Amino acid sequence: MLTSIKGKSVIVTGGSKGIGRGIAQVFAAQGAKVTLIARDEAGLKEAATEMGGNVRYEIADVGDWNAVKAAVDSTAKAQGGLDIMCANAGYFPQTKIVEMDVEEWDSVMACNLRSSFLAVKASIPYFEKANKGRVILTSSITGAVTGFPGWSHYGASKAGQLGFLKTAAMELSRYNTTINAVMPGNIYTEGLQGLGQEYLDTMAASIPLKRLGAVEDIGNAALFFAVSYTHLTLPTSDLV
Ligand code: NAP
C-alpha cells in the first residue's frame, strides 16, 4: 500500500521553473507542504503564488553550502521537519571542450553535482530525527546514457550524480531514507527553450510520440519515489 504525501514537508530546488516547478505542482496538488528554492526572488514569488497556500520559497544558490544549509533549516522550522528533498536545480550551457574555460566547468559542477551532495548533507539531520526520508535527484540521460556536443561538463555532472547516489543510498539507509534519480530526456522547459527552436524541433522529431516531455511527467515520476511502501521495513545496511 502506498501512503499519501498529504501534509509532508517537501523541498524542490529549482522549483520556480521547468521540471522543478512541475515536481512542486504535482506535490502541492497532493496536499504536501512545499518550499521552492532558487536564486531569483521574482520567479519564486510568482511560482509560489500560482501554486497556492501550501507553497513557500527560500532564496539560495544550490552550490553554496551556507546558503543551502540556511534554506533547509529555515524550511524545516517553517514546515515542521523535512520528509522529501527533491534536488533538481541545474543548468546546461553548451560549450565545446576546446572553447570551455575552467570557470565554466567548475560552475556547472557546483550547480549540478556539488548541489546534490549539499542538499543531502543539509537534509540528513532531519531524516535522522524522523528516522525516515526520501531524496529524489534530477539527473539526465545526458552523461549516463548518451552525449551531446557542448555538454561534456553537463554530462559529467549528471553521470556524477548517479555515482554519488549509489554510495549515498548505502549511507542513508541507516536513517530509513531512500535516494533515487529521475533521468529525463528532453522536457519542454524554460531552460530547454533557451537552446532555440531548431534544437526543440530536432529533438521532438527524434521522439516516437513526436513531442517533448512535459514537466508533469517528471513530477509524477518523482512522486512515485517519494511515497512510502508501508509494508516494507527497510533493512539497515551492514556497510555503514
Ligand atoms: P530551467 O527551466 O532552466 O529551470 C531551472 C531552475 O533551477 C530554475 O528554477 C532556476 O532558478 C534554478 N536554478 C538554476 N541554477 C540555480 C542555482 N545555482 N541555485 C539555485 N537554483 C538554481 O531548467 P530545467 O530544464 O527545468 O532543468 C531542471 C533540471 O532538470 C536540471 O538539473 C537539468 O539538468 C535537468 N534536466 C532537464 C532536462 C530538460 O530537457 N529540460 C532533461 C534532463 C535533465 P534561478 O535561475 O532563479 O536560480
What does this structure look like?
This protein is α/β, with parallel strands linked by helices and 240 residues long. It is built from nine helices and six strands, in the order βαβαβαβαβααβααα. It has helices at residues 18-29, 41-51, 65-79, 102-130, 141-144, 152-172, 190-193, 197-206, 215-226; strands spanning 9-13, 33-38, 55-59, 84-87, 133-138, 177-182. It has a six-stranded parallel β-sheet with strand order 3-2-1-4-5-6, sandwiched between helices. Strand 4, helix 4 (102-130) and strand 5 (133-138) form a beta-alpha-beta unit. The mean pLDDT is 95. It binds NADP nicotinamide-adenine-dinucleotide phosphate. NADP nicotinamide-adenine-dinucleotide phosphate is lined by residues 13-14, 16-20, 38-40, 43, 61-63, 88-92, 111-112, 138, 140, 184, 186-187, 189-192.
Summarize this, please?
With 240 residues, this protein is an alpha/beta fold. 49% of the residues lie in helices and 13% in strands.
Topology (SSEs and partners):
Blueprint: E1 9-13, H1 18-29, E2 33-38, H2 41-51, E3 55-59, H3 65-79, E4 84-87, H4 102-130, E5 133-138, H5 141-144, H6 152-172, E6 177-182, H7 190-193, H8 197-206, H9 215-226
Parallel strand pairs: 1-2, 1-4, 2-3, 4-5, 5-6
Helix pairs in contact: 1-9, 3-4, 4-6
Bound molecules: NADP nicotinamide-adenine-dinucleotide phosphate.
NADP nicotinamide-adenine-dinucleotide phosphate (NAP) binds next to helix 1, helix 4 and helix 7.
